[in-house]
Amino acid sequence: MFEFSLRVTGFIYQDDMNCPNTGAEFTALWRLYCDTMKKSAGMRVLKNHISNRVFDSVKRPTYGYIIITSLCNSRCKYCDMWKNKGENEPNTEEWKRIIDELVNLGVVLLTFSGGEPFIREDLFELASYAKSQGLLTLVVTNLSLFKERYIEKIAESFDFFGISIDSTRSEIYKEIRGVDWLERIKENVHKIMAGLTELKADVHVCGMITITNRNANEIHDLLHMIFDNLGMDTISFNLLDPSGGAIAKEFTPTYEQINDIKQVILDHKSLYPISNSTRYLSQLGNFDYRCNPWKCVQINEEGFLIAPCLPLSAKPGIFPDGGRIDLRKNKLSDVWGGVQKIYSNYANCKLCNLGCVAESAWSTYDLKFIINDSLFGTILPTMKRISERNNGKASSLYKSPLYTGD
To answer: What is the pLDDT of residues 193-243, one digit of tens each?
Structure first.
């Protein structure tokens, strides 16, 4: 869920660089990003990056991740969150105060997660409020609660709109997600893409794929469904988290399946703007990274700051020094300095096999990754596709002019 967040940061480092001689079309895109760099969000990311490299004591996080509800209407077999009752969740004003604190701390990109975020009737209000405070906003949804009247609000409220689609086949979708919604979700995607095109909205619409042993043999078909059939802007793959639910391990892909998946995606990297970096794909299943968990402020559905992170915070055997702080009773700015030791203790952790964690971690210390993998490998190709979509020039088979075959 952090993938888009880290990739948006890539272009801010290019302010003093000459535009590469790759043709007028690319030059125009480059100028667009040069203009975008000057906006406050880009400058705040740069400020965070410099501050975190110069000062060791108190870090400035660039990413925020809030679970605005634990309620979910899916019944995914690899996740137990749908069993929650959604009790003691912050109200609208409490979430707004937390968002204010995130802005004051230096956060630039905010993900609204769940559960199913659209169960919250105030989702658009909260996202619009976050944008009014200068944040870039992201959401990931199963799209089951979508209504056509939401399209304009989506365009106004979100910079990134992720849609969970784990299969091209209804029976596999139902087996994985516990609900028979695939055809309905596909119809909703078509409506969203048509509506955003009419509005010429720059929202990144992304197909979010959780890789399991059930869909491991249909990665090729998923790629073509997302891009050629549904006309979405990009796609993101994440390996199943085997600790996500009681029977999640039963859905874990095998080593052989992961290697096959890796090759299929890499083979399509030159054809489509796949949001996963080449580094991520080459290390799929065995990531080499330094987590630096301070990079992202993670807040659970009860409004608690979770340190060092949400994915493994429930395992005190792994994180004996982890912390939970109620942000309805405490200001984030008052407690942030006090949790730095927790983040420092787990700075070198790499227990997660989640690509979003690894890629955002690389972005905290590897400028080459930001420029080569994020900017050239993902941001510009995706923006080119969005530009083509909004100008009625989108082709069914996309080929990035920036791809070098490396």
So the answer is: 999 999 999 999 999 999 999 999 999 999 999 999 999 999 999 988 776
CA distances from 42 to 8, 135, 215 (A): 8, 10, 37
**pLDDT value at position 31?**
54
Delineate the domains of the chain, giving CATH numbers in brackets: 3-292+349-390 (3.20.20.70)
Full-model pTM: 0.86
